[in-house]
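Thread: FE2/S2 (inorganic) cluster complex, take 2
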Amino acid sequence: MKITINRKEYSVNEHELDRKLLWFLRDELGLVGTRYGCGAGLCGACTVLVDGQPYRSCITPIGAVADGQLVETVEGLGSKQKLHPVQRAFIEEQAPQCGWCMSGQMMMAVSLLNNNPTPTDTEIEEFMTQNYCRCGSYNRLRRAVKRASRY
Ligand code: FES
Ligand code: FES
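Output below.
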């Protein structure tokens, strides 16, 4: 089977279809921007986008996304030369503290803004608090998403 990640196609062996997407990304492809937190679908540190929707890759079997869906990780958002607007806004608002949750938070922000380009503060808070930030950076996260919505 084929799996498309950040616009590149990869082959997946049939016997790997039950393997969790997180470990395929990190261990096979070296895409270590997607983080491991709880491993139980609770914290959101491992969030990636599948056809633009947030998925918790620690509980998502590869087989569930190897059928023509487009997987996007934080590495696919932008480059050093050209940051994605969400990356720019997160830096400018100094959203990260320890940084552990931030790749998942950025993928959530991209998903929110794709579906709702001008969210209210309440809509941002409600959406973004689906992902935990142990450092409690929620106010800076809200400001960063708001800033990104203006770019
Ligand atoms: S590591 Fe996947 S939800 Fe926590
Ligand atoms: S910045 Fe530390 S967990 Fe969110």
